[in-house]
Amino acid sequence: MSGFSKLAAVGPTTDAIRAAGLPLPSLALAVSVAVELGGGLLLVAGYQARIVATALALFSLTTAVSFHSNFADQNQ
């Protein structure tokens, strides 16, 4: 669902990534959508589930550290 919401609001999502100070916000958006949608679809299909789950876990940890680091904000 998160990947679809990013596609529905490309401009605001890119602005949020830029405001967080991450480099190359357009590329970061493309990578996040690809990982979220592609990874989710691959898990549903059961294709290379352990590898995909590991990639999604690493993506989640990376985004938690770099973008979703305000733990007081429950929207994050």
In the predicted model, the low-confidence regions spanning at least 5 consecutive residues are none
Major pleated sheet: none
Radius of gyration: 13 Å
Q: Report, as a whole number of angstroms, the end-to-end distance.
A: 15 Å
| Rounded mean pLDDT score | 89
Using the alpha-carbon principal axes, give the shape: globular
| Strand segment tally | 0
Q: What structural class do you assign from the helix and strand content? A: mainly alpha
Number of helices: 4
Structural account:
This protein is mainly α. It has 4 helices and no strands. Helix 1 packs across helix 3 and helix 2 packs across helix 3 (about 25-45). The chain is globular. The model has no long low-confidence stretch (mean pLDDT about 90).
Give the helices and strands, then pairings.
Elements: H1 2-8, H2 10-19, H3 25-45, H4 49-66
Helix pairs in contact: 1-3, 2-3, 3-4
